[in-house]
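Tokens as discussed.
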């Protein structure tokens, strides 16, 4: 075996006690190992304090408590999960506000085809700790409350239709959501040290007002989905209602692509892949590998070519890339903001602009959040 195969075998073997059943059968193709980024090494920090590969540039889109340039909209505190939506020849970037005591919500920024800002506005307000979320195939943004009795809110990126609370999707410490149009379900992560992975099966695909909440089980190595008896989570929390429900240590980001739901767990710094077609589970990345660059795993997205981009909550404030050939490497690093976290990564429809936020910026306070755009030669083929 070559050195890479040996390293992978050692890494998988070291974690074998944590692997069982369907997970173990899939683990041979993983985990991703440190290696050279397809974009090369990071250069010195630019004027915004961001280290990027050669050929890439950054700009500040918005700052918390300040007006978005050219608009009358004040950008929210503690920007977190985000997503882009096509808007004619332009696009919209939506961003959650992870603020408690009714201070949460979602804001949006509109761009024209030249990436100039043409507007900014609120699409949800009065909620609590809107952390991550996910888009739907019918172009809405699901914004998730990260509190024990949290709801999912379905919002309109254009701000035309009012936001709607989707109680049928369950009340728990919601983190992120990912729509699977093949099986017509929405996957949901839970940010608790003994959290679960859920999926919501709408009565009618495209309408989230009613349906069935299910939780992933693993019994004797076999995965299955079981109905949660009481999605309201009271008096018994949803994660404790089904015997054999599989435990995940701090569910974070969640993203669906080509039959696979990728999600992260911050408690053990792992990136997972649930293959919905094969009904199997695997660890894509585990930071127990020597020299692992990615820690504090949080939001995760995928580029069109299949590269995963994982933002760090902690670590050294990086967004790391995991390639389809199982290499993990830093893509960018934010300097001088060690008391913050990176969140909300999202590509514009063309895939040549990446948006993300530093939740607390240089101040370390929720009022110091900064939202950025990175432009450059993102690859369109492997």
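Sequence:
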């Amino acid at each position: 075996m070559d050195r890479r195969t040996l390293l992978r075998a050692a890494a998988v073997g070291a974690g074998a006690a944590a692997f069982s059943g369907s997970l173990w059968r899939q683990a041979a193709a993983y985990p991703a190992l440190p290696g050279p980024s397809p974009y090369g090494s990071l250069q010195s920090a630019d004027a915004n304090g961001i280290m990027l590969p050669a050929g890439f540039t950054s700009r500040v889109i918005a700052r918390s408590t300040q007006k978005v340039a050219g608009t009358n909209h004040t950008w929210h505190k503690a920007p977190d999960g985000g997503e882009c939506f096509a808007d004619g020849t332009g696009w919209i970037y939506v961003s959650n506000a992870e603020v408690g005591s009714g201070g949460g919500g979602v804001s949006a920024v509109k761009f024209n085809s030249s990436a100039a800002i043409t507007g900014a506005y609120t699409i949800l307000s009065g909620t609590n700790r809107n952390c991550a979320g996910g888009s739907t195939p019918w172009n809405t943004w699901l914004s998730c409350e990260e509190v024990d009795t949290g709801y999912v809110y379905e919002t309109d990126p254009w701000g035309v239709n009012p936001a709607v609370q989707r109680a049928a999707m369950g009340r728990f410490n919601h983190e992120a959501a990912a729509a699977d149009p093949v099986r017509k379900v929405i996957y949901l992560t839970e940010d608790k040290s003994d959290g679960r992975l859920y999926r919501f099966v709408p009565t009618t695909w495209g309408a989230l007002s009613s349906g069935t909440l299910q939780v992933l089980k693993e019994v004797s190595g076999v995965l299955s989905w079981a109905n949660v008896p009481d999605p309201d989570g009271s008096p018994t929390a949803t994660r404790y209602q089904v015997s054999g429900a599989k435990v995940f240590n701090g569910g974070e980001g969640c993203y669906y692509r080509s039959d696979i739901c990728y999600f992260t767990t911050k408690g053990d710094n792992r990136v997972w892949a649930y293959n919905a077609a094969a009904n199997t589970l695997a660890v894509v990345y585990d930071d127990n590998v020597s020299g692992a660059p990615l820690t504090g795993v949080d939001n995760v997205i995928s580029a069109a070519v299949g590269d995963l981009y994982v933002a760090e909550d902690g670590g050294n404030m990086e967004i790391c890339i995991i390639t389809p050939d199982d290499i993990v490497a830093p893509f960018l690093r934010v300097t001088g903001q060690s008391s913050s976290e990176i969140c909300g990564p999202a590509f514009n429809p063309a895939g040549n602009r990446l948006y993300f936020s530093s939740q607390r910026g240089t101040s370390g306070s929720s009022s110091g959040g900064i939202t950025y755009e990175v432009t450059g030669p993102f690859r369109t083929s492997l």
